[in-house]
């Protein structure tokens, strides 16, 4: 693996022990994946920031690091809304540990913007090389924006942020970004609800595994693409997909897919992901991935004149909430709560419920494993109806 003079200096410890250790980690990763060199990145998104997921071991590891990031870096959602944790029912012991983790990241220069939708914060463009780690953010950056990132682990993304580079392999290389399987969707409904695309992603993930799918027969909006990618990343390992005529690389490169395996998907199979079993729902949670401004507006519209009878959680990036304060106030007038910094999966707050209703294919896959309760999928309208019934 080729290292330039600056890389060699970092590796020799000329820029401190922490950067040296981080460079060792990146070089080891590069060697495993056959990278020929290191490349500069324009930003990093670091997962593994919730005390719920990294615990005391992760906190101690972070506190032992001593360097500053070389590129803009943000965090994945943490275990609580930083300024509303008491209201969420988070214990002071958990909050204390979470705050120590946040302080450790802040000392490294990582911005305390804790979100899986950093692309709403104007930090990425077509062709940028990144080191992002949350699976839905990786999928969106690669597929919807046309940026280039592998699905980094938390330590790999942090190492890249501190060094400012990442090994050049995988999805950083244009030739590795071609479609590998075609998903032919027939008779897709003209629905505007994102949940259907989350269900499609939930269904397709296991069918494609690690391959790069090329979708035909759908024309999703950006929010629907977000839901599709999140669902596939959760049930498969899809870090990049293309949609015929929609996603940027499908429009730029005009891929020849005639020799690829084609998998047909019928709408009935997607509809089956929505279970309509009669269950007692304890709480409703939307915003997985974190809501866009449009999604917040839609939620506010649906809640106008209504009052929630069950806990209704909405999650979004702090920067989006700050920019959409009027909309957020309209949502909260109904009794629903809009929380920044955290989400239904990485916060312990939602573990107290036995059955959650969600509108996300990703949450449908993760809530049972990571929160202990059951989950079922509904459209946004159904989620609002359930919470206000
Ligand atoms: Fe984001 Fe949490 Fe869902 S990190 S994608 S809201 S599981």
Which secondary structure elements does this structure contain, and how are they paired or packed?
Elements: H1 5-11, H2 17-32, E1 38-40, E2 43-46, H3 51-63, E3 73-75, H4 92-107, E4 130-132, H5 135-145, H6 154-163, E5 165-167, E6 181-185, H7 194-208, E7 213-216, H8 222-235, E8 242-243, H9 248-253, E9 261-265, H10 267-271, E10 283-291, H11 293-303, E11 312-316, H12 318-323, H13 325-333, E12 337-339, E13 355-358, H14 361-371, E14 374-377, H15 380-388
The protein binds FE3-S4 cluster.
What is the overall pLDDT average? Answer: 96
Strand content: 5-15%
Give, in spatial order, the strands making up the sheet with the most strands. 12-11-10-13-14
From the helix content, strand content and strand pairing, which structural class follows? alpha/beta
Please report the number of helical segments.
Answer: 15
Number of beta strands: 14
User: Which cofactor or ligand species appear?
Assistant: FE3-S4 cluster
Helix content: 40-55%
Could you give a short account of the major beta sheet? Answer: 5 strands, parallel
**Residue windows where pLDDT falls under 50 for at least 5 positions:** none
Rg on CA atoms, Å: 21 Å
Distance between the termini: 61 Å
* Overall 3D shape: globular
């Amino acid at each position: 693996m080729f290292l330039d003079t600056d890389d060699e200096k970092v590796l020799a410890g000329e820029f401190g022990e922490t950067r040296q250790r981080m460079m060792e980690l990146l070089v080891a990763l590069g060697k495993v994946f056959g990278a020929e060199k290191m490349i500069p990145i324009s930003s990093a998104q670091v997962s593994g920031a919730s005390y719920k997921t990294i615990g005391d071991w992760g906190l101690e590891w972070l506190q032992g690091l001593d360097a500053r990031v070389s590129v803009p870096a943000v965090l994945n959602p943490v275990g609580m809304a930083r300024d509303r944790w008491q209201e969420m029912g988070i214990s002071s012991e958990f909050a204390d540990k979470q705050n120590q983790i946040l302080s450790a990241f802040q000392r490294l220069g990582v911005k305390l913007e804790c979100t899986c939708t950093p692309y709403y914060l104007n930090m990425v463009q077509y062709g940028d090389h990144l080191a992002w780690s949350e699976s839905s953010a990786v999928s969106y950056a690669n597929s919807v924006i046309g940026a280039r990132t592998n699905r980094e682990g938390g330590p790999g993304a942090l190492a890249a942020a501190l060094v400012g580079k990442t090994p050049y392999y995988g999805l950083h290389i244009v030739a590795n970004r071609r479609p590998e399987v075609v998903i032919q969707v027939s008779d897709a409904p003209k629905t505007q609800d994102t949940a259907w695309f989350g269900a499609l992603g939930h269904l397709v993930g296991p069918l494609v595994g690690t391959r790069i799918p090329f979708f035909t027969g759908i024309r999703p909006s950006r929010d629907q693409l977000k839901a599709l990618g999140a669902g596939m990343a959760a049930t498969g390992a899809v870090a990049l997909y293309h949609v015929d005529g929609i996603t940027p690389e499908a429009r730029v490169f005009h891929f020849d897919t005639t020799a690829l395996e084609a998998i047909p998907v019928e709408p009935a199979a997607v509809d089956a992901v929505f279970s309509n079993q009669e269950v007692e729902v304890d709480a409703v949670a939307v915003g997985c991935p974190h809501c866009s401004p449009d999604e917040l507006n839609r939620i506010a519209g649906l809640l106008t004149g209504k009052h929630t009878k069950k806990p209704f959680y909405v999650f979004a990036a702090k920067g989006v909430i700050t920019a959409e304060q009027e909309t957020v106030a309209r949502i909260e007038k109904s009794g629903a709560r809009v929380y920044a910094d955290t989400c239904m999966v990485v916060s312990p707050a939602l573990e107290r419920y036995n059955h959650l209703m969600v509108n996300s294919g990703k949450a449908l896959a993760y809530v049972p494993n990571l929160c202990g309760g059951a989950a079922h999928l509904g459209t946004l309208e159904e989620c609002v109806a359930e919470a206000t019934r």
